[in-house]
Amino acid sequence: MTDIHFQLWGKRMPRKKEINFVLLGLGKLGQGFYRQWLKKKDEILEKTGFKLNLLHILVRHANFKRPDFVDQSLITTNINDILNDQNVNIAIDAIGGIEPTFSIVKRLIQNKIHLVSANRMLLASKMKEIVELANQNRIYVQPEPSLGGGVPIISTIQRDLLANNIKTMYGIVSGTSNLILTKMTEEKIPLQEALKSKDILRLGESLSIIDYEGADAAQKIAILAAATFGIDVNFLHIYSEGISDISDFDIKCA
Length: 254
Description:
This protein is of the alpha/beta class.
């Protein structure tokens, strides 16, 4: 683990009345963002005076069947369509994973495009490299969507609690694991049965072994450590233990 001191936020994003952005990825997360943009863009314009224009959506497969509400003319598989568009201000990362996302993000940053990322795995693995590159290119990195479903945790730590000396951080960081354990406790059912419950299945494709075997929590801790203490630590170096071995007996004894 290397002790580092860096500004997580990068450089401040310039204020513009029109903000042109691109969306990276159109899976469940990307589609959710797209829906919210369609629903809220007029309200945001009315309340703030900022017009949010979506210029491109970068995907891996151009011919993949997508929902009817998606504007197909925005779809591209070529990163150069974004890099060559001088009107792009911001990239929204909703791809997930480390590669090819990291390579894409580096090219965008080098092209002076600000980054808003919900990619927890990427940030928890490559935070130092991303922030250093962002500062070199004088652009803004916003990792807030990667934690707490967009609840302003990082901005609270780095802005509102700036004068405080935070020494320790603890709490529930995996909502999925918490929900599963709650089901096991209240309904007195084993893990495999809890995973089949309606509340858990409602999570859909977002539920994976990462959510309840500790990797999800480790990734969040790595990002919070960088934001709070200026520590660069890869989430793979953080000890984590999942809940798959918790039995009915463990629940009764807890």
